[in-house]
Amino acid sequence: MSEYSNNSSKTTGIIVIIVVVLAGLTAAWYFGMYKPEQEAKEQARLEQIAQAEAEKKRQEEAAKRKARYDQLITDADDAFDSEDWQTAQSLYTNASTFLPNEQYPKDQLALVNAKLEEIAAREARIAAGVVETVSSPTERFYVIVSSSIDDDLAMDYAKKLAQEGTSVKLVQHNYNELPFHGISVGDYETWAQAEAALSSFSNFGNVWVLKY
């Protein structure tokens, strides 16, 4: 019995050692390999989710910027077509802040700024009583308040209006093969715009539109 007991104790001891070793190996595998691997996978999954959410947010913000840009361009183009240069300038500038790489609003701004500079120069001429002379066709539509064959007479009247603060151009054109000097108090890109403006100059009496 004593020998059997000793053998049994040895066997039990060996089993305990094996269990302890296996437990150690299992713990080493779990904490040294499996758990870090699972944590890395979970971290990668969370990063993918975060990246997907960030990309979705970026696309949503880009879509909002594009929609805002499109609306500003539409409004700016309407202002441009109506020759509301100040409004067009503001809207094109604002549109560029939403999509800075777009060239269209920059090109339109260049045109608008040129128009504003032209207006400023014209106003300076008005303030100085200077009359601008149009001697070649421009394909614009002029509101004419007076026309004369006598260029000196036409210029005198034009200067009088300019000194009173009216924007005046002396349009040199032919009528029935005769040279005439029309006094214009407004010019527009389309016939409809010029026609619509006639009522604004009714104080001049008989006014009409001349395409030149």
TrEMBL record:
Coiled coil start-end: 42-69
InterPro entries: SPOR-like_dom
PROSITE patterns in the record: SPOR
Domain SPOR: 135-212
Keywords attached to this entry: Coiled coil, Membrane, Transmembrane, Transmembrane helix
Keyword Membrane tagged: yes
Transmembrane segments: 12-31
MF (Gene Ontology): peptidoglycan binding
Name of this protein: SPOR domain-containing protein
Organism expressing this protein natively: Ekhidna lutea
